[in-house]
Amino acid sequence: MTAVRRRRFDVAVTGLGLITPAGTGVKANVARIWDGRSTASRSPGLEGMAVDFSCRVEDFDPAAELGRRTALRMDRVSQLGVTAARLAVSDAGLDPQVWDGARVAVVIGTSFGGSASFEREHETYLSSGPTVVSPQLMVTAPVNMTAGHIAMDCQALGPNQVVSTACASGTTAIGIGRMLLEAGLCDVVLAGGSEAALTRTGMASLHKMGALSRRAEDPAAASRPFDAHRDGFVAGEGAGVLVLERVADAHARGARVRARISGFGASADGFHASAPHPTGDGAERAMRAALADACLDPAEVAHVNAHGTSTPKNDVTEAAVIRRVIGDHPLVTSTKGVIGHLIGAAGAVEAAYTVLAVEQGSVPPTANLERVDPQVDIDVVAGAPRTATIGAAMSNSFGFGGQNAAVVVTAA
Predict the structure, then answer these.
(1) pLDDT, tens only, 195-228
(2) Rounded-to-integer distance, Cα 331 and Cα 78, Å
(3) Are residues 265 and 406 in contact, defined by beta-carbon separation less than 8 angstroms?
């Protein structure tokens, strides 16, 4: 039985914080994403591996950004997450020095948490023994620590949660943040995702399972969602945080409302650890639930930011579901062609790009899309951005384990 929402509950998006392979801040991300230029390149830490390239956050100095002592207490996943949260709070025009921290919640999605710290300290253990392992490991590596560090950094003293639903984590975090506001448990939510899992062990496993592109001769062209010659995704890192508030509260303080989060849907495939359901059943239920939550007709959705991983099965399945649920009219894009797959942060970053598309009335192109797969029967934007009036849009995220989430973004 499908639950039907009797009224729509909109929350205002008043701030965006982005630190991704496309750059730091909204302006840098818009420039690179809307230009459609890939960020994939060879990675210094992956030399000698079969897949030695990724999409990385370049020119990020955590000591300069956060202070040396503070940065040393964090894994890179938290360094990125805290930086994104700071940017989002600033963008929203909020001041943690004067807000009521007990009414500010944090919900952050991540899949791997501080995996780089675990891998580094495990190597230390093997080479030098247990007495040399850092005592900081247990406060840098656990998945909860990014949300904890954000709370400490900006005195957000309300509900503090981490969501781990694989590649759907960031989207799920936004949905939960909206629920917290509706329940009256807080007045402001910092919701998003962070991931920094470009480790040799993790990349080796993804390569062995066949998830990664093997286009090593041309990394910049490797991530090519919906293209007939795609062969896997390019792993990336980064963080995205959205500031969510009740619409009335945002208006009362004179805040700029970039867009609204109007619907959320989630589901499980219950099918396979890594492959999507052959018919996209779980993805379809999540998308339909998000539309019902937003009280929208599919014809009202003008744009879809697709999960679009650049893997053979995912893209065909998702395209079929989009056509089935929404139709062939929306302008579809996958921004993973530029920044790769940010795993647990992907949904949050892509939701932020969806907010920007709605706000600007422009859909960014899907990078590296040269020839659309004949099985993909939807309107995928390629080559250059496309302008449109976007009253409503959807952002999809589908993760390993068959965990699916979708959010509906509507115009302010």
Answers:
(1) 999 999 999 999 999 999 999 999 999 999 999 9
(2) 34
(3) yes
255 vs 166: CA distance, rounded Å: 33
What residues have CB less than 8 Å from 138, skipping those under 6 apart? none
Q: Which two tokens stand for residue 292?
A: 């019902």
- For 117-133, give the DSSP string: HHHHHHHHHHHH-GGGS
Q: Is 186 a catalytic residue?
A: no
In terms of Cβ atoms closer than 10 Å to its own Cβ (0-12, 13-18, 19+), residue 10 is buried
Q: Tell me whether residue 207 is one of the annotated catalytic residues.
A: no
Tell me how far CA of residue 30 lies from CA of 27, 83, 88, 133, in angstroms: 5, 18, 15, 41
**152-to-58, 147, 191 alpha-carbon distances in Å:** 25, 9, 15
Q: Exposed, middle or buried: residue 274 (CB in 10 Å: 0-12, 13-18, 19+)?
A: middle
pTM to 2 decimal places: 0.96
Which one of 149, 277, 303, 307 is the catalytic residue? 307
- Give 250-299 pLDDT, tens digit per residue: 999 999 999 999 999 999 988 888 777 888 999 999 999 999 999 999 99
Distance CA 122, CA 89 (A): 36
How high is the pLDDT of residue 1?
Answer: 43
For residue 263, what are the β-bridge partners? 408
Q: Is 229 a catalytic residue?
A: no
Residues 327, 287 contacting (CB under 8 angstroms): no
Neighbours of 154 (CB within 10 A): 22
Gap between the Cα atoms of 303 and 390, Å rounded:
7
Instruction: Tell me which of 167, 186, 277, 303 is the catalytic residue.
Output: 167
Q: How far apart are CA 412 and CA 393, in angstroms?
A: 12
Q: Which of 149, 277, 303, 341 is catalytic?
A: 341
Size of the chain, expressed as the number of residues it contains? 412
Write the CA distances from 81 to 31, 46, 86, 281, 396, integer angstroms.
Answer: 21, 23, 9, 32, 21
| Interatomic CA distance for residues 41 and 53, integer angstroms | 5
